[in-house]
Amino acid sequence: MSLDRTEFEPALQPLNRARSMPAGFYTDPAIFKAERDNLFLKHWFFLTRAEELPNPGDYRAFDTPGGPIVLIRGNDGHLRAFANYCRHRGSILLEGTGNVGGRITCPYHAWSYLNDGRLYGCPDMKDAEGFDKVENGLVALDLDQWEGFVFARFTKDGPTLLDHLGDFPDRMASHKLGDMRCTWKITLDVACNWKLILENAVETYHTGIVHKNTVGAQQSRTLATKGNWITIQVISGRSIATLTDEIPPFDPISGLDDDARMGTYFTVIFPTVQFAVAQDCLWWLNTIPIAENRTRLEVGGCFPESRLTLPDFATRAEPYYDRWERVAKEDVGILEKQQRALGSALYKPGPLSWRDDMVQAMGVWVVDRLRL
Ligand code: FES
Ligand SMILES: [Fe+2]
Fold it and tell me: Which ligand is nearest to the CA of 232?
């Protein structure tokens, strides 16, 4: 497809007349490249919770659409994010997770960096003209946190994280999300475009079918938002984060406001993450776009810190982990079918239901930022 906005016009009409996005929105490398340049390199994206790296020297490497980065806690206690490459000739510095102590040493020629990014050791460089150690520290990304949720950005330009989040913090105030602690994660490699995962995560049209053996049919309402996020709320007076018919194993968060008591918020914080916020917990679907038809999906689960000290915490948490994994895998199964179908030479975008309103909103947000 061409990157011409007219190709998207049928998808941008009022919902009752709108079509789905053209197939190329999910299959075209040129669209993926435009997303990289205009979305992923320009906006805040979620990494993890701060408590995952509690000690100086703790690090975690991430692959992102802007290349490998590493999140690391310095001796001064501050978290920082850097491009994960050596300033000599560009080897990856760190893989996976771990603790480097005070220094990161390059595996290639052993340049070393302090855990705050400053270049420390660079053997045999005394003849290099104009070489200045101060200018050859690791290249930093912008980093910010909201209530312990860590976000990074490849540019210094644009709104603060708080401005990006708009009225998300107000809507979530009574959940006291700063008390949340991540206790569980899984990563799935998914053969579909990243947007399909998030579109699916803000509609309940599919739940009675795809999830008939797990969460089943759900009713939801759409709530108005300000800022770079959208949400539906699945209506249920009890947490839907477990599948059991019995009372959920953890008590609701105390002091929830009237709206929050009504159900679970299934949000998308643009561009790449869902926070699902229930009465007793939070889980995220963090999409890491790899290619137009490949996404790494991290599902992470959090509970209020006070729950973690309950003697039977692990037993009580088990049904939540089970539900998050089973439902995520059910979604992955249908989304991979959808991606394959989008490759049809005969694909024609279909009409939308009123229940697809946030599916459309997700696509509109992206198209509006692709500079088509
Ligand atoms: S590439 Fe890192 S020391 Fe040479
Ligand atoms: Fe689903």
Answer: 2
